[in-house]
């Protein structure tokens, strides 16, 4: 073999090695990158316990806590909680065991091991999936709508109620059944062969609590929809703490009003670092938490204004998470 051929082989081998190294690096980078969305623990009515992904120790859950793949919640009897995931809300009644099996940019797959869950899917974009797995079946929302899932004692059955929208339920052996609005389905086995169908029951206290959350969302979203996307985590809380105004040199801005004299961003609460090596921008005075985008987070600039020593404008700032203590 001539010198020229040996050189060509060396160059080809080196090129293949470099290509492989780049491919591996890109794959590792893609695996390491956190998803663009995260759930926010928006409401705790009573108490809630959290088991973070990778941990073996349960602890108290706190408002604004970001939740992602592997995180688990326990809501004791007499308590309730609500999670925000963009424009979607997941509400949990007392006695509910819940966890995220996978939370990515397109797929939200959760597990309900006990208790009752209300799922309000306000937007369902192309390619998105919302799946709730129970001990006996898998529920997948097919349309935007509101759904309720109840686990029978001992996990021996699942009741699916469709207030609005449409969904598909999957069972063992490839079993599949479509469920439609205005009906409630009680599946008594995992093969979906034993099922009772009846009209949506009269609302109970948990339903009324969820409907009140819906009414609050509509009020707050109507005040903010021209300024903030419904997919921004935590923006609903802004309505209770301030108002939107036009700053001549900047444009539409949110100004805090319901704050004490001397208040300043990041003065109250604490910053935490998430397990992905960074933290999502969080918020001030009980607003939003996310790895990528949320309200009231980021570098601040003072603007002279009445009612407080200084008003502040906010720009997005990644790798920070803020909780109210």
From TrEMBL:
<feature type="region of interest" description="Disordered">
    <location>
        <begin position="279"/>
        <end position="300"/>
    </location>
</feature>
<dbReference type="InterPro" id="IPR006860">
    <property type="entry name" value="FecR"/>
</dbReference>
<feature type="compositionally biased region" description="Low complexity">
    <location>
        <begin position="282"/>
        <end position="298"/>
    </location>
</feature>
<protein>
    <submittedName>
        <fullName>Prolin-rich exported protein</fullName>
    </submittedName>
</protein>
<feature type="domain" description="FecR protein">
    <location>
        <begin position="71"/>
        <end position="167"/>
    </location>
</feature>
<dbReference type="Pfam" id="PF04773">
    <property type="entry name" value="FecR"/>
</dbReference>
């Amino acid at each position: 073999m001539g010198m020229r051929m040996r050189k060509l082989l060396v160059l080809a081998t080196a090129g293949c090695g470099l290509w492989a190294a780049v491919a591996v690096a890109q794959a590792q980078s893609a695996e390491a990158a956190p998803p663009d969305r995260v759930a926010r623990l928006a409401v705790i009515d009573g108490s809630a316990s959290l088991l973070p992904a990778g941990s073996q120790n349960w602890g108290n859950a706190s408002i604004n806590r970001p939740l992602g793949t592997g995180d688990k919640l326990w809501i004791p009897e007499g308590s309730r909680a609500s999670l925000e995931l963009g424009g979607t809300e997941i509400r949990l009644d007392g006695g509910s065991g819940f966890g995220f099996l996978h939370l990515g940019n397109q797929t939200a797959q959760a597990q309900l091991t006990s208790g009752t869950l209300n799922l309000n899917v306000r937007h369902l974009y192309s390619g998105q999936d919302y799946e709730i797995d129970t001990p006996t079946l898998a529920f997948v929302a097919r349309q935007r709508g509101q759904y309720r899932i109840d686990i029978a004692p001992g996990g021996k059955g699942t009741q699916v109620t469709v207030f609005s929208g449409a969904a598909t339920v999957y069972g063992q052996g490839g079993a599949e059944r479509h469920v439609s609005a205005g009906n409630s389905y009680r599946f008594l086995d995992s093969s979906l062969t034993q099922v009772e169908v009846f009209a949506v029951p009269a609302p109970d206290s948990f339903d009324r609590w969820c409907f009140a959350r819906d009414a609050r969302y509509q009020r707050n979203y109507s005040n903010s929809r021209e300024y903030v996307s419904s997919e921004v985590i935590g923006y609903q809380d802004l309505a209770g703490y301030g108002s939107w105004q036009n700053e001549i040199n900047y444009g539409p801005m949110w100004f805090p009003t319901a704050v004490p004299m001397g208040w300043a961003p990041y003065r109250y609460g604490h910053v935490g670092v998430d397990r992905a090596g960074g933290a999502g921008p969080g918020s001030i005075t009980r607003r939003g938490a996310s790895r990528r985008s949320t309200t009231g987070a980021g570098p601040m600039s003072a603007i002279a204004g009445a009612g407080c020593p200084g008003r502040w404008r906010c720009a997005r700032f990644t790798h920070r998470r803020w909780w109210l203590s």
